Amino acid sequence: MNRYKADLHIHSVLSPCGSLEMSPQVIVDTARAKGLDVIAITDHNSTRQCKVVAQLARKKGLMVLCGAEVTTREEVHCLTLFENFEKLDAFQEYLDQHLPDVKNNPDVFGHQVWVNAEEEILGEEERLLISGLKQSIEDVEAKVHELNGLFILAHVDKKRFSVYSQLGFLPFDLSIDAMGISPLVQVDELLKKHPEMKEYVLLRSSDAHMPDQIGQRYTEFLMEELSFDEVKLALRNEKGRKTEIGN
Amino acid sequence: MKVNDIVEKLNLKVFSGKVGLDQEVTGGYTSDLLSDVMGNADEGQLWVTLQTHRNVMAVASLKEVAAVIIVKGLEPEENTMSQSNDEGIPLLGTDLETFEISGKLYELLK
To answer: How far apart are CA B71 and CA A57, in angstroms?
Structure first.
């Protein structure tokens, strides 16, 4: 088994709150420089930047998982990750269908553009990406799993946009692949507050919006090789694969 | 004042939990963050929210609120209604927005 460093919650230039410095090239170079092996591009309610990052990373031996950080109707943030571009496109269609038609105001929220490897603008999302989707948390979970993707609750310890802040406690029949936690949260204290979290795999990520935040904290996967299926096994702690986070 | 009196005065829709319409109302609380409601709502209050998720009823039961009012004509999810029936806590509805229904409720209960 090999040990891989993973940071599975990173925003690109496409997220309104993401720094304009977060271009595909900068993300890939910074991730490599920080010694990361796997990253995920999870922009708010859009998957439109991650393909370029994934293509660029391939040449550098860095694995990029593509997905989005979805805001559900309840305003719970959830990380969604997919195994290939086909599944990713199907999920983008779902996002396009359910994102409310509220226009972004770049002066207030920030720009929502995606770029190519040379940092030239390819397109701009007109609708505000930080709106809540017109879908419940259960709807989003069902769609992600229908597409064989990973459904991870984002930063559950946060006082805003977390499952605990929005819904009080974990919905009964939600199928969760991991619970994301913030870079600096103390795990033992968190588990005291929410003992049921012990039953889930925890995933620590940076939630980077700026280059120097990438890999600030990470999770380690023990697995055979860099692949989506191996990450899946690691998140289940199955067949000798493991997910490890520091306290 | 009982939940049923308020249903009549404010012309509220009763989705479920009819058993609880006899409950005495002590006040109101308006919030959409369930964690906030868990920390701050009091027993016997009417809780005004736009959330329709099933966890609403679990929080309502935990805090022993008298009833929940869903605003803006939103429809609660099926399992939210069934849990309201199980708990015997009425799930009510209005087409009014949160600001308006909270104001009317305040006038009635102040």
So the answer is: 48
Residues A193-213 pLDDT 10s: 999 999 999 999 999 999 999
CA separation for the pair B99, B48 (Å, rounded): 10
Element (H, E) at A222: strand A219-223
CB contact under 8 A, B38 and A164: no
Q: Which of A159, A166, A172 comes nearest B34 by C-beta?
A: A166
What's the ipTM? 0.81
- List CB contacts (< 8 A) between A159 and chain B: 35
For chain B, the maximum distance between any two Cα atoms, rounded to a whole number of angstroms, is: 33
Residues of A whose CB is below 8 A from B54: 171-172
**Half-sphere exposure at residue A50, Cβ-oriented, CA atoms within 13 angstroms:** 30
Kindly state the tokens that stand for B10.
């404010």
Q: Which residues contact A229 (CB under 8 A, 6 or more apart)?
A: A83
Calculate the dihedral angle through the C-alpha atoms of A31, A33, A37, A40, rounding to the nearest 10 degrees.
0
